[in-house]
Design brief:
heterodimer, A: alpha+beta, globular, B: alpha/beta, Rossmann fold, GMP Synthetase, Chain A, domain 3, 3 domains, 9-stranded mixed sheet, 23 helices
Chain lengths: 309, 655
Amino acid sequence: MALHQSRGNDPASAKLAIFEYCKKRGALAVGVADLDALQRIAPPGHRPKDLMPRVKSVISLGVGGQTQGTWQMPAKAMAYSGSTEVRAYKVAYGCSFFIEQRFGAPTIYVPPDIDPEGGPRVPFQSLKLHAEMAGIGARSLAGDILLHPEFGFMYYASVFTELELEPDAPMLENPCPAPSCVSMYRSIGRTPCMKFCPAQCLDGEIDAEGRQKVMRYDMAKCAEFTQEYEAVPKILAEAVKDEVRSNGAEGLLDPDRKMLWYKVSAGSGAWFAQCFECMRVCPVATQAPQSDPILRTSASREAARKAES
Amino acid sequence: MARGLTREQLGITDAMIETYGEAIFLMSHNRQTREGDPIRALNWTEIDRQREAMGLADGQISERLGLTHGQVMFIRNTEESRRFRIGQQAYLMDLGGGKRFRPERVVPLEQRFRYGENALALRAALRFDGVRAAEFIARGWWSDDTLTKWLARHETQRPKAVALVHAGIDISWRQLAERVASFAAGLQSAGVARGEVVAVQLPNLPEFVVAYLAILRIGAVMTTIHMPYRGAEFETLLRHSRATAIICLGQEKDWSPAAAALTLRSAVPTLRTVIVLGDTPKGALGYSALQAASAGDICDLPQPAAGDPILLLYTSGTTSAPKAVPHNSHTLLSNARLGVPEHCVGPEDRILSAAPFSHLFGLYALHTSMAAGSAMVLLPVFTPTNLAQTIDQDKPTALWTAPAHIAACRSGGLFDNIDFSSLRLAIMSGSACPPALVRWLATRLPACAVTQLWGMTESQAALYTRPDDPIEVVAVSAGRPSPGAEVRVVAANEALCAPGDEGELQVRGCLMFPGFFDNAVANAAAFAPGGWYRTGDLATIDAAGNVAITGREKDVINRGGHKFNPREVEDLLDSHPKVLQSAIVPMPDPILGEKACCFVTFRPGADEATLEELVAYLAEHNMAKIKFPERLVVVDEMPLTPTRKIIKSRLRLPD
């Protein structure tokens, strides 16, 4: 804070500069989450101050996901074309340097990884919560995946900084459920994401006003599709006690399992969220006004022009 | 925090996991419920109220339960791993690209098909030489052909064209495809699984064809049981093939195959299902009930592959112990497809098989008709009259037949009374063709090309003459190798015989089976180096490459060191005015080792001939004295294979 003031930047213009930086580098949406609210909602050990004790601001940004063509891909390949989280991390990483250099405030790029003291499935921080509080996404019926009315389905990254910025408010309206989903729910009792989830891990209700009433998500079921890394110890255990095959090592080298070793070697993290089926059928994710990459680019440019003027 | 602490260091016991596992699993993020949108709305009351339902972190659970953070994490992870099923992402492979999840069509992975032990054993028998297989593929002999694909192709391209003709009724390719799809669904609902063997004992009826194609559609394997087979053969074949189901008649003359099969369920451990055409006894399933199944049930069933086994056939009884011959689509359908232009058949043809489909020669006719898109004219049971009437009524253009069929029609005078003029091709196989009979047929049907074919259960059609071969070649030889087949004639020392010299016929090529199923002893003796199959048949090859089958190696008689093939003696005896059929077999002799004994049946109405009379006949025709039979046994009926070959092993010398 002291550093920031010494360089003569006011919070509003600093925020504007940070947003501009992020958008120029590919972020579709940027926001600042209310730190106090995050501290209150996140569980102990996973609050912003647990990672950065002197954090003053939590910046969340989202990058675009899929082209229209990507949504038509076979599921097995979609993760490779559809996962753009690395782009989000790249922007956040650059943003943290930008803030430090421009404003002199210690800043971190929030690791989007699991907490080694929490075991699998437990992240350091909830990037989802940051984005929701920063007003760049709202929880959907599809297992609380965040959606944006303009940009659809995005990947998020976060930056913590000691620079104090004015927080944004959460979205006023939730784009989920879309009108067509409400119609479908009225007809068959399920929304597209519920119907077409291959794990059948989604369930929920929509109220008389067409808003989310209840969202039920069986994350354990979903994880069986999206977090195959947990298969590794099971495979090893099976191979060791394999009584059918003459050689346990053969089990380790089955084509399916070889693929897992490949992933281990590649270290791509692609074992996470390989399943896109709920988003594939989501009208907000696939048909949001600026989910189209060309429109999205135009809108970004227009937003940048407005910001400059 | 766990920090790498062991279970013991954390104080975790099985009792703790059992006690708290379920609660911790549910309290964590594994199951999340959110009412309304409290976080976005910053509705603190609701956020706090719903905190547990939305999922607690380990630290929060530990406070709630009074366990340490490390204990909660360990128990949660253990419980999650215990419930976690691996390989679930495989479901995703079916999705995308226009396909979406349909819960009603999902077969849980753990319930998806897994080949049984017996199915894997049968598949393991299909072991081909890799270098040879690569050559077959490179030359286009082995392809992705399956009968399922051929049926689908005809259904798509010529849905209304005739596929089967039975009793004057035409069945189109579309109708056939629909029946096959329904019956396949029926088989599946009856519990028949991929890779399992289904035995079929049916006459050449549409139901046989439907059953065969349906069995293949679900990836199962067919084994056939010849119609005359009864209890002992039934049990042997069902047991050896490990059949899990049998499709048979309710009643066949004075015998009930269905009742026999039901009884055998206790003796044959693999046999579960008996499917009956006709009167269905209690405990069996009706063929018609399975035929009425919904065809939609097999839409998502994986298509069979060309490398899958499709047939398990037993050698036709000319050997004393039946041997199981496995085939896949590569061997059988390459042979059929490549044979179509050789036989000059096409979609306009109507093929009739006088041989039963339970024999590979009969199935070769069916395979050829499906390769060419020809109509298959069905003759359920051969009698000379039935054959002649079917030809007269259904007007086949091509006839798959055995010499005995033609001889029977000739002796019955049917060629004089019935119109055979629709035939433009007659393929004779199944036993040695008497040259005189071939010439007679060619003369009797001048517009019909008469050809000879030689094959075995192990090879389907290995040799045949072509329709444009001169009658001099057709009468005395089985022709040249089929495309993809190689033949050679070798002496006892495996040296190649000179043209015209008799030796053992050996065959190899893309049509050959890879080895007997579950019979290591037979396999060890069956193949010569280089993958040549020892046929056991004696043959000569002329300079033009035409192969003449001269007899069976095991039929050779060794009379005091002088070995001779009795075939020419039998051919001559068969031309005796009183003789209907003859078969010469060795009989033990204390001095010479073996002598020739002649079994004979006489023509109806003819007087019996004596040994002296027959020997005089042979002498008259300049047969060497050393080859004269030295004993005569008159029998009422010869034991015959389904393709009308005499089963010499069943000829017993009377005391």
